């Protein structure tokens, strides 16, 4: 005699319903939006290194990023547009290097209402950023003053005489702080060094070249120049080299690039104050990732600055800072 299993109508309906839901692949969880990393401009060596650091953090953490930048560092409207577009994607966090201290403030405030904003490199007129990751630029400016005073003293027997400051772009938080740190350090420790000229540029190489030429022409007794970023440092270094002025005019630049490394090696530049842009990009993405996950983050991270001279440029740490990885 055969035996048959007796299945109730209710059990059959439940089984059919369960099988219906299990047909086909399981639904995939919605992927989190990429973390936007907005630099000032993508075509400069410094920002390429920042994005290399950001990409390294992306790989280590398994999170997607989207590296973006305006056409140039003076394109304030372009950067604000990129920030607003990034907010519209509803990411868990945004990383941005504001090109202008005041102009980017309202845009950062608005973005912070909707997501965590991690500011890198340059400060901004906002109290609503989640974290600020940068060089202590006031301290870095003071380091530049110390290095220039030392180079002038070695040549002339004392830290005295006329010096000039050449900046790349007015209104950038990092440049404002470097200039302040430089001048404050001269006032405190080197009162016989006098700033006779300070040029603020317009964010272009052409203007940087013209500013350096004007400083050299207008101040025949000049003993030193502080060039406060990569582009103006390259312009000043090239002018000092072309004019064979390295013996009489001491130059301290800021940041690193292959051209600056060569000018340091041949003596056209007395010293470079070098940041760590790779670490800046890495920590920016790492902090953004943690903020997006709801974890606590540090309000401020100082990524450091180092004075590098011809005598120290071949030590291991200095070589890494002068030759950072670029993707």
Short description:
The chain has about 325 residues and is an alpha/beta fold. About 45% of the residues lie in helices and about 20% in strands. The protein has a 6-stranded parallel sheet with strand order 2-1-3-4-5-11, sandwiched between helices.
Molecular structure report:
It is a single chain. The chain has 327 residues and is an alpha/beta fold. It has 2 domains: 35-135 and 277-304, Response regulator (Rossmann fold); 137-274, Response regulator (Rossmann fold, 3-Layer(aba) Sandwich), CATH 3.40.50.2300. The protein is built from 11 helices and 12 strands. It has helices spanning 9-22, 45-61, 76-88, 105-112, 137-156, 173-189, 205-218, 230-242, 258-265, 277-292, 316-322, and strands spanning 35-41, 65-70, 93-96, 116-120, 131-134, 161-166, 193-199, 222-227, 250-254, 271-274, 300-302, 306-309. The strands form 2 sheets. A 6-stranded parallel sheet has the order 2-1-3-4-5-11, sandwiched between helices. The protein is elongated, with a radius of gyration of 26 Å. Residues 1-30 have low confidence and may be disordered.
């Amino acid at each position: 005699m055969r035996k048959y299993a007796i299945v109730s109508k209710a059990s059959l309906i439940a089984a059919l319903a369960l099988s219906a839901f299990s047909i086909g692949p399981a639904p995939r969880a919605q992927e989190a939006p990429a973390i936007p990393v907005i630099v000032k401009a993508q075509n400069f060596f410094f920002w390429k290194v920042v994005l290399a650091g950001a990409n390294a953090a992306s790989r280590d953490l398994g999170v997607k990023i989207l590296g973006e930048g305006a056409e140039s560092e003076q394109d304030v409207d372009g950067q604000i547009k990129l920030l607003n577009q990034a907010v519209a994607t509803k990411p868990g966090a945004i990383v941005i290097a504001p090109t202008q201290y005041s102009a980017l403030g309202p845009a950062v405030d608005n973005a912070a209402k909707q997501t965590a904003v991690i500011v890198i490199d340059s400060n901004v007129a906002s109290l609503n950023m989640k974290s600020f990751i940068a060089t202590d630029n006031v301290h870095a400016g003071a380091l530049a003053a110390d290095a220039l005073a030392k180079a002038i003293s070695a040549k002339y027997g004392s830290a005295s005489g006329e010096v000039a400051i050449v900046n790349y772009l007015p209104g950038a938080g990092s440049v404002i702080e470097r200039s302040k740190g430089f001048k404050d350090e001269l006032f405190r420790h080197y009162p016989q060094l006098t700033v006779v000229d300070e040029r603020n540029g317009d964010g272009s190489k052409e203007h940087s070249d013209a500013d350096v030429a004007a400083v050299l022409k207008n101040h025949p007794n000049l003993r030193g120049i502080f060039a406060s970023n990569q582009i103006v440092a390259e312009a000043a270094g090239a002018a000092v080299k072309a004019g064979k002025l390295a013996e009489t005019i001491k130059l301290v630049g800021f940041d690193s690039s292959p051209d600056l490394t060569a000018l340091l090696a041949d003596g056209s530049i007395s010293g470079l104050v070098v940041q760590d842009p790779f670490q800046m990009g890495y920590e920016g993405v790492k902090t953004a990732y943690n903020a997006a996950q709801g974890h606590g983050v540090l309000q401020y991270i100082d990524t450091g600055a180092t004075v590098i001279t011809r005598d120290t440029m071949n030590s291991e740490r200095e070589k890494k800072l002068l030759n950072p990885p670029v993707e």
